[in-house]
Queue: 2 jobs
Job 1
Amino acid sequence: MLRRMKGDLVGSIFIFILLMVFWLLISASADWQHILVGAIFSFILTVFWTNLNISEEYKTEFTIKQLFLLIIYFIHLAKEIVLANITVAMIVLNPNLPISPGMVIMRCDLRRSLIRVLYVNSITLCPGTITVELEDNLLIVHAFTRTYAEELEHWPLYQKLLKIEDVYKK
Amino acid sequence: MVLQYIAIIFLFGGFFFLLVGVVGLLRLPDVYTRMHAMGKCDTLGAGLMLIALMLLIGDLTNITKLLLIGVMIATINPIITHLIAKTAYNRGTPMAEGSFLINEYVASQRRRRREQVQTIKKGDESSK
């Protein structure tokens, strides 16, 4: 475990700082006792979680540019969630129930596991689509109406995620 | 005082979206479309209610705790939706009548194959 921490020192320090900030926000007091207990437990968690969080072929890199792109992404995602709920409300409260459901099988080119999780979750939260299965690069999506199914391939958030992943490849 | 009125607006918005989720659960025809209603409306409804509570409390530690609950709802809700839909799909639960199926995978695979062949050809011409 310590060998892995040495292999990716920046990543483990990053996780330690995240846990520490979280502890300080929750405990809401800055005594030296609180800080000491928090530091001890954050260190234990980073040591024991290294085999979940840190792998040697994908080192943790987090640049300012990526943070900027992620913030833009989350603003877009919040807008899309509100839109999705309004469309669902329009469809459900309409007395004719104008739906034409169906499955779409398509391709997903993302590699990093965290970004794949983000992509799948945002598909579920966005208007008219939920994810059914993601295996390697096969993605099965259930769509509410036919227009949403056809729009899904040229989805602007997917392009944004591809751009975030391109930062890693350099 | 103004803050309380804004909080009331947010509370009723959350109430409305949770109500829409329940109405969708009752009206829609099969499992997958019902997951649409539940998975989306619960996230925004609970989120709006949490925002209203944050406005009413106005204390930093409690706001972070509520924010944490909001983030957890926003990540757990789509995952559970995905799990239910995946299990239903693997068990072969029938879809509603008149459902379509688009297979975009084969078409995109062919397109990629063609692009790869073209790049190889271009590389050959430039090397000559």
Note: The first strand of chain A starts at residue 102 and ends at 107.
Job 2
Amino acid sequence: MPQMDFTTYAPQLVWLVISFVLLYLLMARMALPRIERILTTRDNRISGDLNEAAEFGRKAEAAQKAFDKVTSETRARAQKLAAEARERANAEQSARTAKLDAELAEQSKKADAGIAAARQKAMASLRDVAIDVAQAAAERVTGTSISKDAAAKAIDAEIKGAKS
Amino acid sequence: MEHEEAAAHGPLDQFTIDRLIPIHIGGIDASFTNAALFMLISVALVTWFLMAATRGGSLVPGRLQSLAEAAYGLVASALRDNVGPEGKKYFPFVFSLFMFILFANFIGLIPVPGSFTVTSHIIVTFALAFFIFVMVTLIGLARHKLHFFSLFLPAGVPIYLAPLLVPIEIIGYLTRPISLSVRLAANMLAGHTMLEVFAGFVIALGIFGFAPFLFVIAIYGLEVIVAFLQAYVFAVLTCLYLSDAINLHKH
């Protein structure tokens, strides 16, 4: 069995040491740093890309938030403006209504005054007519004429009695 | 005697060491043998494979680059899982060990005349295993000083069991280089011998040779798996021994 031929041990050991040391140096100095560099580059690239994606996500979220803020602000402002306009319109409306009411009241007061004056005038002329009628009626019934003053006195007394 | 064996064409002839260039330095036989040639071929192929695979160094790896990265990842994760971050220092060593054994095993499986499997020789695997044994012991002693010997008494064991357990642990520790080297060499030796024996049957049986031929194909597939597995087992056990020396059972 060739494995048990001790005379071959020395050359095998010598060349094993030579080849293994050679391989170790080649691996440690050349091959492994190269593979390591490739793997690190890839890892960095992947994590870099992931970070970038996360950054973009954050930016998009911030933009969305800003957009939402502007939208809600604008909406609030629009509502405020609309409310103000409505209030102003209401105020104007009520002012105009009040003015109109006042005018109407004024006019109706004036009309009432006119009516009262007319009635007083009518009442006054009614007394004159009543005095005339009373004078004529007394002349026709009794055949005697009464003075205008006496008729007026009697009418006034009657009016006074009717009024009270 | 070598010539007589070669003439007999036994199944063990494939393991014969031939002195291609006889070299003697200071009484030491440093002849360049076929074993040495195949060791250097392994070194050259490992290096060529890794350098060619990573030449582009592309972000998205091609086929070769994926293989090189897979080999790197395999050893790196074995070291990380077994030893932890402390093991990073020994990565080039374990990786060289794995690739050397893996390529030596694979090259030995290429069926060409003069093909030779470096790892089928117990002296080669024993030298590697013994070196690992010494290295691991020195690392353990340097890190933990005398506390290193607590490795032989696992924590939580009742003290009255110590007289029984400590010798067992010590024997287990001392036989590590033997089990490690014999496992690899015996697997290679047995596999190649079996292939050779059944390949011999193919010729001997003539027309009925197809039966052992099919068997040889099946065994060959198995041997490819064994070649990879033994290299991996060697590397993983090296990681475990390193872990013992660095972490002293606690992890």
Note: The two ends of chain B are 54 Å apart (CA to CA).
